[in-house]
Amino acid sequence: MHNAITLTQFLIQDQRRIVTASGELTSLLNDIVIACKHIANVVNKGALIGVLGSAESENIQGEEQKKLDVISNDIVLTRNEWGGHLAGMASEEMEDVYNIPPQYPRGKYLLVFDPLDGSSNIDINMSVGTIFSILRCPEDVVEPTATDFLQPGTEQVCAGYAVYGPSTMIVLTTGNAVNGFTLDSNVGEFFLTHENMRVPENTEEFAINVSNERFWEPPVQRYIDECIKGANGPRGKNFNMRWVASMVAEVHRILTRGGIFMYPKDTKDKSKPGKLRLLYEANPMSLIIERAGGMATTGRERILDILPEELHQRIPVILGSKKEVEIVCSYHREMD
Ligand code: AHM
Ligand code: MG
Is 86 within 8 Å of 98 (Cβ atoms)? Predict the structure, then answer.
């Protein structure tokens, strides 16, 4: 029998530390947690309830939607629209901002999310996850539009992800720390299991989709080439490689044992300056990684400082153990 504190208890204790806190953020996070439990349940049942496979539709970015992308998106909307804490939501799976239905009260926060990241892994029973970021709705705005969501990552009130792996976990940064909670599905609660997660400064493990090598820019080609050369190359040490194709799983691994994750700029499709989206993938993960002592950059600038121009804007992402990310940045400076 474990005696760790529950996520709800953690949030309420956290809230008590701020004398002026109204409890709205705590309530909003509770609704997000319920959405994640619900998604975990559906993902876990998988083929038994007929939710695997394609939805036979595309999202705004022209990507195939899985049935579970659509289901997870609906779950997040339904669990969060009623509570009175949100003024609007935006998601990878919806072209436009989702306004709160008129029968529900409006709140002061905005929720941005990727309901099921890494969903190409769904049909092969590999880890997927939900990524979320909470922003403040600009004052006096009742029906937020896309422009109201275009805030730099430094403005995030809170960010987190759920990973649906062998265990379901939620990793969250509210104050300055990053904490991980594991779902005990018999009890139906998340318990604090990973307190104050820290990214080791050094690593010998990289994650990148090497099949894109010919499309990368020279600084990234150089960095990976040197890693692959190992102990006989300029780095003088051997590296290991992992690629799950699920950012949530990669970030979770990096938070647990270090590493560097890259989805860099490439020329595969010249209209896209990267694959991952700034508002609901890069920003929340960058906040988590930075608060855990790591670093997150495009190679040329800190991700959290970027002023977004579009809701579904894509951005190069290089994040993880500080010393390695710094080396990639130095190669960009030297070779630009
Ligand atoms: P998604 O939001 O459509 O799932 O796409 C994002 C995912 C990331 O989780 C992962 O790092 C990347 O796409 C994998 O890309 P690739 O298929 O090129 O390996
Ligand atoms: Mg995604």
Answer: no
- Determine the residue type at 177: A
Distance CA 203, CA 206 (A): 8
Burial profile 225-262: b = 16 or more Cβ within 10 angstroms, e = fewer: ebbeeeeeeebeeebeeeebebbbbbbbbbbeebbbbb
**What gap in Å lies between CA 273 and CA 78, rounded to an integer?**
33
* DSSP code at position 49: G
| DSSP-derived pairing of the beta strands 158-164 and 168-173 | antiparallel
> How many CA atoms does the CB half-sphere of 259 hold within 13 Å?
20
- Residue whose Cα lies nearest atom 17 of ligand 1: it is 245
Pair 153, 276: CB distance under 8 Å: no
Domains, the chain, ranges and CATH? Answer: 7-194 (3.30.540.10), 205-335 (3.40.190.80)
Give the integer Cα–Cα distance in Å for 74 and 4.
31
In Å, how far from its chain's centre is CA 304? 13
Could you give the CA distance from residue 56 to residue 69 in angstroms, rounded to a whole number? 11
H/E stretch holding 117 reads strand 109-117
Residue 247, ligand 1, Cβ within 6 A: yes
Q: What token pair was written down for 23?
A: 């409890």
117: nearest Cα among 257, 299, 263, 8:
263
Query: Residue with structure tokens 């050094």?
Result: 202
Q: Is the CB of 126 under 6 A from ligand 1?
A: no
| Residue 114 Cβ contacting ligand 1 at under 6 Å | yes
Predicted local confidence at residue 118, as pLDDT = 94
Q: Residue 170's beta-bridge partner residues?
A: 162, 181
Gap between the Cα atoms of 20 and 8, Å rounded: 19
User: Structure pTM?
Assistant: 0.97
CA-276 nearest atom, ligand 1: 6
List, for residues 249-303, the tens digit of each pLDDT value: 999 999 999 999 999 999 998 888 899 999 999 999 999 999 999 999 999 999 9
First to last CA, the chain: 56
